[in-house]
Amino acid sequence: MLQAQTIAAGPQVIAEPSRSPEGLKRFLSQVARFSAVFAFACVSYLFFSRVVVSSVQVSGTSMYPTLKNSDRFLLNKWIFHFRAPRAAEIVVIRDPTDNLLSVKRVVGRPGDTLLFEGGKLYINGVQPKEPYIPAGQVTYPGPTYNAQTIICGPGQYVVLGDNRQGSMDSRVYGAVPKERIVGLLVR
Fold first, then answer.
1. Is 68 a catalytic residue?
2. Annotated catalytic residue: which of 44, 59, 68, 104?
3. Choosing from 62, 102, 167, 170, which is the catalytic residue?
4. Is 25 designated active site?
């Protein structure tokens, strides 16, 4: 047979938070540590995203078919502090016409002479192989020229969109200084 047991409940004691100076010091120390870690994380994020790498989204069709509207990529902003942009690399520039960001391909480097004539591009007198543009695509000079020559001075680059008929690029605004190249598109 089961017997019921009675348990006497004594007075309940509820622990109060420590109001001692030591407890307050410990609490403030934890708040300070948390604040320091949070501040460091914010500063690291801001530095990293503004100086080292950031995310970019393609808007428009000037790089079609290589890049499509709304594609997302990483932008390496740090690399050109260590080396110069190379021919055929896809870069993001600060567009000279409206100061907005624009994605283009490097085709001319310092010292190069580019000639746009008869729907063809010549770099230093040679027609380059451009496997990134569709076969048979023509590259006309800027809108006000029958033929156009662009000479890249020191620290200047010619940038073109892969969609040569739908791109506002160096054929309109000329060679761009390296300072206008924001970074390398990472695909």
1. no
2. 104
3. 62
4. no
Is the overall model pTM greater than 0.90, yes or no?
Answer: no
Level-2 CATH architecture, domain 58-186:
Ribbon (2.10)
What tens digit of pLDDT does each residue of 137-169 get? 999 998 888 999 999 999 999 999 999 999 999
- Segment (H or E) for 27: helix 21-47
For residue 163, what are its two tokens? 């969609």
| pLDDT score for 145 | 83
Amino acid identity, position 38: F
Helix (H), strand (E) at residue 159: strand 156-160
Yes or no: say if 88 and 132 are a contact pair by the CB < 8 Å rule.
yes
Mean pLDDT per 10-residue run, the chain (187 residues)? 56 60 87 89 78 88 96 95 97 95 97 96 96 92 90 98 95 97 95
Q: How far apart are CA 122 and CA 21, in angstroms?
A: 79
Q: What is the DSSP letter of 17?
A: P
